[in-house]
Amino acid sequence: MSGIIAVPVIRPARIPRLAVKAIARQKPAQMARILACIAGLMALVLPVVAAGDPADIDAAARGVVRVVIVGADGEEIFPISHGTGFAVTRDRVVTNAHVVRDAIADRATRIGIVPTGGGQAVYGELVAVAANKDLALIRLTGPLRLPPLTLAGGMAPDAGDVVSVGYPMNVDRAQGLELGDIFRSQPPVKSRGSISGLRPSRQFDSILHTAPIARGNSGGPLLDECGRVLGVNSFGADNEGGDAEFFFAVSNRELIPFLRANGVEAPVSALPCRSMAELDASESARMAREQAQAQAELAAQDAANRTRRERATLEAQTAVAMEREDRLVLAVLLLLAAFALGQWALALRRDPGHDPQRFKLVAGAAIVCLLAALAAWLTRPGIDAIDRRVAAAMTPEGEAGPDDAGAAPGELALQCTLVPERSRVTGAPAQSVALAWNANGCVNSRTQYGVAGGSWSRVFVPNDEDAVAVNSFEPATRTYRSERFLLDRAAMDAARAARAEYTAPSCGAPDAAARLGEMQAEVLGLLPGQANERLVYDCTATR
Q: pTM (2 decimals)?
């Protein structure tokens, strides 16, 4: 039998009742300081914004699948039971052990994986089962590749809103779906609730919550508001006599070790869950604080420069006046010396017995003194020397910085470090990025960035991942950003089609930056107004 599940011919229902509920910021300087205080207060009084975005749940749901246990009767195949699972790598799916119980008991059965958002169902094979933890790992045997969900790291929260995602049977029945519809790609059901506490059971560590699940939700993810997996929905408490309903999920304290024990390193993020709106508000407050601080520093620098200029002007005026007086005195003394030597030379000339050689020496000395006096007068500093000296005093000597070290001509070598407080992380990003930036927008001597509206960016639309990345760089602040848009299959197809319409120019090509900025506009126009993930890196020059 091939890895693709064909649409089956369905015979009468043979889905047994499952025993467990589905798993599921006066004077300029003073004014600037006041602005800084106001900006700081703004940050304190910003409204509290919800921690997550609905788009995060939708993005996570792309990797949720229906897990169907399939039986066969000759050439006819039929569903025996079904539950939910989710991708932890592109070809590995996690579900509950009890979802695949029938496949374990009867080797003649197969495990079908039906993706959400389109795509053909494929078969999978069991890789590992931990019945005491109610966990199972399945490997896809067909060409289907799924976007893996990110697991929440650290201790599970003891409170907070959560979302269960899966395929409850009661919804299927309410819609009048037939058994054959189980093999059709359908969007999963999302139900909201809250964490009621952490309740370790005798068998495994679990999370108690109120996000409704039903039969068929078994093995589906329990998500936080950033779409990160907190646990695997497993079962529900009995609701006898109208008691409040509670549900249990196998926590990540069980899931992560289980995956690692089976060679799976799923993406894990332990950073706080923050909404993009909250991040934007925080970024606006930060920019206001920085602008206020810059104004305060500029005002302080202006005041310091004024004091420094006044001191330099006074010093220059005093020095020039003294030099002019010194030159005048020197010129007068030299004139007196020239006059005395001239009188001596005349006396020697009138003496009939004078020594000609001595006359020449005295006369020459008189001439030299006269010329020196003239030079001292002419070279005395003028009033304009004051301005030149002040300008020289106000201009610091240039120092060679590290910017050019280790980089090619015109290229700036940078090491960029992730700034978690300015980022919204939903996956497991690189903590640092090496970047070589050229003024023409060439990155690492091979990737051309486009410029539009004064902003440098490059759009990446991969063929093997359902996400579009928009990377940008601000040379003035040395800030590198990477924003990821997690799209469904239809949106990714549209983005890939738009990207296929142009070929990015190579580094150094004529007008490469401007042309690429225009080319990328269509792809950017297809993206949602808000990214799912924003990574902000602070870059410093390296040697």
A: 0.68
